[in-house]
Amino acid sequence: MVKILSYLNNQELVDGIHAAVPGAEVVFINPSEPLAENLEADCLLCVASFLDGVDKVIAATKGLKWIHVFGTGIDGFPLQATGDAILTSARGASAVQVAEWAFTCVLAARKNLPENWISAPSPMWSIADNIGAVAGQTLSILGFGSIGKELAKRALAFDMRVLGMTRQSSVLMDGVEAIDNLETLFAQADHLVLAAPATAETDTIINAKTLNYLKPDAHLVNIARGSLVDENALKQVLDTGKLARASLDAVQTEPLPADHWIYKHEKVFLSPHLAWCDMRVIEAISTSFLDNLVLFAKQEPLNNIVDKEAGY
């Protein structure tokens, strides 16, 4: 019998657990109450948006073999506390949705939207000098996991040139050019999309030095994590005309404070970290856990295992 210690008290999920592994036992954790004594479980189910005290739960739980994060990212997770337990996530569950959002930003930039929508007569009718086709443009993707792949598929279908950079060049796909350094990746980009995980290695990878690799008419899209971007350096290049546009779905502080400069900057197009949104993503996240639960019960290798050393 598999025993699961869960932060999620959701009857639909519990029903799914019992359907997947009949006889599985689920014990709920209430973060507002003291930990019970003599905790014992095979699996710990955490929530990506709430990780306070999870290191203490891990330390207090005997027999823990597997930890699953109910979400697509594991930034902020206390990796050093996991010990020998396998750590998994629902990586890739929102890849299509996030890729679509990123490509929507690319199209919006090339078509100069929303500026070209009108609500009154325009002095320019049937002509515009501020739009063009994405066909023939270069899309550079930093980080080529599931989101990067889905984004590349869409860009290639629009006849864009696609460059990609990742820690493992072997995971790139047909039609995508592998680049092994940031300067080349950035310098050739008409649109640069950040799709890399938040790690120590990627922290403020977009900074004063790397931003200057970009062309002045380039467009930066961040659908990853806010920690990848030095926002002060971003403001500097936007203010001085060294970057044309920034589409941000992730920022360093979320929610962003009301007085933050990003809200009012005419070259920034901000969305409140909603690129992933689609009720089907929640279903996919649940399915990711339940599929792994079946594998765990059969003592078979799990999917979406986190590389603790790499941090994702």
TrEMBL record:
Residues 31-306 form the D-isomer specific 2-hydroxyacid dehydrogenase catalytic domain. GO terms for molecular function: NAD binding; oxidoreductase activity, acting on the CH-OH group of donors, NAD or NADP as acceptor. Residues 106-275 form the D-isomer specific 2-hydroxyacid dehydrogenase NAD-binding domain. The keyword Oxidoreductase applies. Pfam families: 2-Hacid_dh (PF00389), 2-Hacid_dh_C (PF02826). It comes from the Bacteria. Keywords: NAD, Oxidoreductase. Belongs to the D-isomer specific 2-hydroxyacid dehydrogenase family. This is D-isomer specific 2-hydroxyacid dehydrogenase NAD-binding domain-containing protein.
